[in-house]
């Protein structure tokens, strides 16, 4: 894992405010397998740029900047 600059974290926080709907593109978590295409709601973004999501499947797992991918879902 690499360090994320404050500028990038600020942009992630602006792009993914609490309540934003997202769809998972890819995630490589060895313990929890959330299928690609799963949707969820952003709860917060922490100071290292992780987007914390409550997934519609009931899981609560973050999108790690530089490792996982998601996209906003337009409502």
From TrEMBL:
DUF4314 domain sequence ranges: 6-73
One Pfam family, short name: DUF4314
Superkingdom field: Bacteria
Name of this protein: DUF4314 domain-containing protein
């Amino acid at each position: 894992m690499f360090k994320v600059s404050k500028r990038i974290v600020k942009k992630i926080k602006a792009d993914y405010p609490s309540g934003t709907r997202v769809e998972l593109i890819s995630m490589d978590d060895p313990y929890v397998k959330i299928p690609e295409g799963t949707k969820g709601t952003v709860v917060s973004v922490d100071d290292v740029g992780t987007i914390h999501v409550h997934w519609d499947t009931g899981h609560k797992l973050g999108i790690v900047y530089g490792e996982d991918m998601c996209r906003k879902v337009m409502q």
